[in-house]
Amino acid sequence: MEKLMFIQTGMGIDVHGQNITHASIRAVQNAINSNSMPGIREALPDQDLNNMKVNVKLALPADHDNLDEEEVKQAIPYGDVKIEKLDGGMMTTSGIVLEEKNDSNDQMYIVNASVEVGY
Q1: pTM, two decimal places
Q2: Three-state SS at 36
């Protein structure tokens, strides 16, 4: 990325099901859903939103290999999206196993996200 313009952070949780992709999507959505970048188009090359570069850093507590990066990328509406997986986040008890929610144990996954936007 030549020019970093915005950094947005968020947290996502999968309380039941131990799905690292669901928690990651929620973290990305939490980072971007309450932000607006009205001047970004004018700052981008050719004033094209598809020229935006987006680096998504995900701090994952477990199951790095189970992350569906393509599904996470769909949470970003524009630009060239790159995913970086880092150790971090948190696993903690949900206090209950709900088989109907696909729980294999009582762990909930908490993922932290940093979404960097520029060109």
Answers
A1: 0.95
A2: coil
Residue holding tokens 């940093």?
114
Distance CA 119, CA 1 (A): 6
Question: Number of C-alpha atoms within 13 angstroms, CB side, residue 113?
Answer: 31
Q: For residue 35, give both structure tokens.
A: 């932000």
Beta-bridge mates of residue 82: 55
Tens of pLDDT along 13-68? 999 999 999 999 999 999 999 999 999 999 999 999 999 999 999 999 999 999 99
Tell me which amino acid residue 87 is: D
| Residue 61 to residue 90: CA distance in whole angstroms | 5
